[in-house]
């Protein structure tokens, strides 16, 4: 760490603010879940009605004194606000409480730091933390105005604070360069999948909606899944075989949350791009959650921020085992396309329906069938092989080639038209003459 702080513990007082703006309001139950996910031992939850935040403390001075007395009585070592605090507000509150003060962004960053497992995930968390820390660097220093001195070092020089800010900037630049390399590697992998015509599907949704449990059930993987917020941080990709469609790449991604700090969206852009470059998004929704409509809105807001809100989306209502009278089913729109699947990832009920719906949505622009090519169309046969579209090859008694192929219809139409043939006739008969 670049600065000194009060020795912290896990005994925490949670401060939830209620105001007149419903859009800026936070959920107190979600706040408690966040604190528990971070490992805090909650001493008390204090609700403060505050319609006009103050610049010095965010809350009124009278309530600050009440909280100070509560901190001393309960021997709490941490006060967490379910709101964003400015650096000066954090410093002022710490000075009064004589213990650590954390805001909502700092709490989420701490959870992310605990969950990061891969090198990339740790870099992303560190970038967000350093960015958050850079505005709070002044807090712990007691010798900010002292110049570095000593023989050969006297003169204008840098203050210690300036030195540390420079070190922060250097480290942030290094991390961004490393993440840019990760980003290019991901893009290269995606280009390879596109060349092989392998569709990609991403699981997105509110945190703790059951994405990882669904991912494990579909792919028979063992990705860490738990009933806690942000159990998944690092993206995981697995190959999934679907009937009548072939292989697809399924990605499990980090969960979203209301008012997700912009620093995290920026830091995790390389990871979130896995979603924004998918052919289909599976929006996993907790059907048992009372505030699921608000959670859906929050997910769509984050998808809009990363440019993924225009992609095809299939809603997956999970946890129907907790809802009475709901059976696994596919709900379709006016054109007959699947738009919603109800299932239970934990019990495995409805998983086949989800596979069917995904195959329908991805397969509508995909041709899967057997072509009969006479010997004169050898060049067309070679082009199918170049595109990795051939699944199997055989020959009939007349010497014609039978190719079982799988590729986008637009690509098939282009190749067939180039040979002077009529694509519509060919598609109906599944043969080339």
Which characteristics define this entry?
Rossmann fold, 433 residues, Alpha-Beta Plaits, disordered C terminus, alpha/beta, disordered N terminus, 4-stranded parallel sheet
SSE layout and pairing:
Elements: E1 11-18, H1 28-37, E2 41-49, H2 61-74, E3 78-81, H3 87-97, E4 100-102, H4 104-115, H5 119-134, H6 160-195, E5 200-205, H7 211-219, E6 236-242, E7 246-252, H8 262-267, H9 269-276, E8 280-286, H10 292-305, E9 313-318, E10 329-332, E11 338-342, H11 351-363, E12 366-373, H12 378-386, E13 390-395, E14 401-408, H13 409-418, H14 423-429
Parallel strand pairs: 1-2, 1-3, 3-4, 5-7, 5-8, 8-9, 9-11
Antiparallel strand pairs: 6-7, 10-11, 12-14, 13-14
Helix pairs in contact: 1-4, 4-5, 5-6
Describe this structure in words.
The longest helix is centred in the middle third of the chain and has 36 residues, at 160-195. Strands 6-7-5-8-9-11-10 form a 7-stranded mixed beta sheet, with helices on both faces. A 4-stranded parallel beta sheet has the order 2-1-3-4, with helices on both faces. It is elongated, with a radius of gyration of 28 Å. Helix 1 (28-37) crosses helix 4 (104-115) and helix 5 (119-134) runs antiparallel to helix 6. Helix content is 40%, strand content 20%. It has 433 residues and is an alpha/beta fold. It is found in: Cytoplasm. Mg(2+) binds at residues 212, 232. Its cofactor is Mg(2+).
